[in-house]
Amino acid sequence: MSTAVPSPTISVVICVxxxxxxxxxxxxxxxxxxxxxxxxxxxxxxxxxxxLLDRLLKExxxxxxxxxxxxxxxxxxxxxxxxxxxxxxxxxxxxLDDDAVAERDWLAHFAAGYADxxxxxxxxxxxxxxxxxxxxxxxPEEFDWVVGCTYxxxxxxxVRVRNVLGGNASFRREAFDAAGGFATGIGRDxxxxxxxxxxxxxxxxxxxxxxxxVLLIDDRAVIHxxxxxxxxxxGYFRTRTYAEGLSKALVARxxxxxxxxxxxxxxxxxVLPAGVVRGLRDAVLARPGGAGRAGAIVAGVLTAAGGYVxxxxxxxxxGAAFAVAPVEEGGHG
Length: 333
Description:
Radius of gyration: 19 Å
Strand content: 15-25%
Order of helices and strands: EHEHEHEEHEEEHHEHHHH
Distance between the termini: 29 Å
């Protein structure tokens, strides 16, 4: 039986890339600095944007608990996160999206999860903040991952999972020592095609390196994530689900389809059919958006499947690749 360990120090990494999100970035940092359980430090990693880097250095030059640095690797979210991990000093490294704000007890719930020394990662719940003020009637909750949020089908409470979701997650430092950092070439790169799955790939790699590792999601560790207006449209939904298929093909190529698609099989065979039935029932009862949600689920599945097929062919031909590098020793001691 595991024995409890002292509450760990936590560094928070926020990766940023555009001045268009200036107010969001300030709000994200402020939410970390207002935590009931203080972070050791907040690290802002700027992705190849000199103007933003200079502006943030000036903004936070008098706050010793906020550190600003440039992404030391190739452009993209994965290399930015790796830069933050290397520079961080905490025993746990948490990640927060640059367009999200954390609730006051976010880090307290993360820290509680690490009372068990077998726990290597703790994620939280991400709620959408729709630009229009309300969820589009056609947008199914089962596909909230499209906008970077927790989706219907994840179990409630504090539960063991295969992988955490990267915009609201934390890892024990030993996780990176054991498995390396985030893979580059698979995650997001600014405004290019919205690929993802880098945290899924890392978590599966971690489970292989440390078979005893426990990964948790605690739905009390809540952040609120802004969904900009363009992402409320079906065009983005279709683009993002296709990109997810491409990314899942890379993950399956890396870790095998058994592990790479384990959770997705349950999601596709149980969660999504139930969502279609719910949408059709709402349509019969003349509730708004029911038919649209059922149709969106079907369209999302087909588009993701198409992306997976294309991604699999590319991967077999060697046209798509990503690299995993060990995280360099940085500021931790």
